[in-house]
Amino acid sequence: MAYERILLGMGNPLLDISAVVDDEFLKRYDIKLNDAILAEEKHLPMYEELANNPNVEYIAGGATQNSIKVAQWMLQHPGATSYIGCVGKDKFGEEMKKNSKSAGVNVQYYEVDSPPTGTCAVCVVGGERSLIANLSAANCYKSDHLKKPENWALVEKAKYFYIAGFFLTVSPDSVQIVAEHAAANKKYFSMNLSAPFICEFFKDALEKVLPYMDFIFGNETEARTFSKVQGWETENVEEIALKIAQWPKASETRKRIAVITQGPDPVIVAEDGKVKKFPVILLPKEKLVDTNGAGDAFVGGFLSQLVQEKPIEDCVKAGIYASNVIIQRSGCTFPEKPDFK
């Protein structure tokens, strides 16, 4: 099996509690549309309210886990992917395990007695989504779990690593350990800016690991926030992508590639001082179900081709294809087989 355990993801496993809500609901809980934030005290009653919504759906999520599941789906090679994170010993944790295993992902959860498995409120209004993550157990991940022989074996086996920036809020030392392993062994390490708050409030952790990134993903809002935090005084996404790509690297094995998505606008790829743009598949408004997981799916599609050593053009096309499939469905779910050519 050339692809066995080739891709390893680490992140915050969260059970998505997804429901269509209205503007009044967003106002009541002080939520901005298209945002991704961590839950505060004022948000906690919302989870029960969503759970009581007659149209509520539970979907195994968390940014990295979504991307790994999509990559696995696109690859169609059983056991090509692995995923590490922390869940509670409860029914949500069991649900997540079942869901990920049926998707063909080799999950190695660190299981804790308390707190409970993390959840993410997915509030959908007019197809657009806002995410409010209550990390709970996901916040308890420790690098000791990563160092256990059976888990470190997955690190040694993998040639490609992907970690969403959200994990920097939980276990930056785990991220650093994997990043340094990748650089020392000429493997591919990639991350995601994930949310504006990561660029703002976890700036130091992000900057510490940035030199190890071979690929960095993000969307236009995250890129502009990154630029603002760095004092670059530009809102031009192409310029920002070039600057991120040119950030100094820990290993000279290869140059960094920055990939920035912009919703319905072209995907920007900055590599070696040049920018390429790739138009996305435009979807009529009536076909849009919800944008939850669109960015994660893009990364998953991209990685599915990257591990097969396909050219960047093919990686981007696969990313665009995967995100187009996902936004026509509720949450980060997909049909049985992809029909990507």
UniProtKB/TrEMBL annotation:
<dbReference type="GO" id="GO:0006144">
    <property type="term" value="P:purine nucleobase metabolic process"/>
</dbReference>
<keyword id="KW-0067">ATP-binding</keyword>
<dbReference type="InterPro" id="IPR002173">
    <property type="entry name" value="Carboh/pur_kinase_PfkB_CS"/>
</dbReference>
<keyword id="KW-0660">Purine salvage</keyword>
<dbReference type="InterPro" id="IPR029056">
    <property type="entry name" value="Ribokinase-like"/>
</dbReference>
<dbReference type="Pfam" id="PF00294">
    <property type="entry name" value="PfkB"/>
</dbReference>
<protein>
    <recommendedName>
        <fullName>Adenosine kinase</fullName>
        <ecNumber>2.7.1.20</ecNumber>
    </recommendedName>
</protein>
<comment type="function">
    <text>ATP dependent phosphorylation of adenosine and other related nucleoside analogs to monophosphate derivatives. Essential to sustain methyl recycling.</text>
</comment>
<keyword id="KW-0547">Nucleotide-binding</keyword>
<dbReference type="GO" id="GO:0005634">
    <property type="term" value="C:nucleus"/>
</dbReference>
<dbReference type="GO" id="GO:0044209">
    <property type="term" value="P:AMP salvage"/>
</dbReference>
<dbReference type="GO" id="GO:0004001">
    <property type="term" value="F:adenosine kinase activity"/>
</dbReference>
<keyword id="KW-0460">Magnesium</keyword>
<dbReference type="InterPro" id="IPR011611">
    <property type="entry name" value="PfkB_dom"/>
</dbReference>
<dbReference type="InterPro" id="IPR001805">
    <property type="entry name" value="Adenokinase"/>
</dbReference>
<dbReference type="GO" id="GO:0005524">
    <property type="term" value="F:ATP binding"/>
</dbReference>
<dbReference type="GO" id="GO:0006169">
    <property type="term" value="P:adenosine salvage"/>
</dbReference>
<keyword id="KW-0418">Kinase</keyword>
<feature type="active site" description="Proton acceptor">
    <location>
        <position position="296"/>
    </location>
</feature>
<comment type="similarity">
    <text>Belongs to the carbohydrate kinase PfkB family.</text>
</comment>
<keyword id="KW-0945">Host-virus interaction</keyword>
<dbReference type="GO" id="GO:0005829">
    <property type="term" value="C:cytosol"/>
</dbReference>
<keyword id="KW-0808">Transferase</keyword>
<feature type="domain" description="Carbohydrate kinase PfkB">
    <location>
        <begin position="29"/>
        <end position="335"/>
    </location>
</feature>
<comment type="pathway">
    <text>Purine metabolism; AMP biosynthesis via salvage pathway; AMP from adenosine: step 1/1.</text>
</comment>
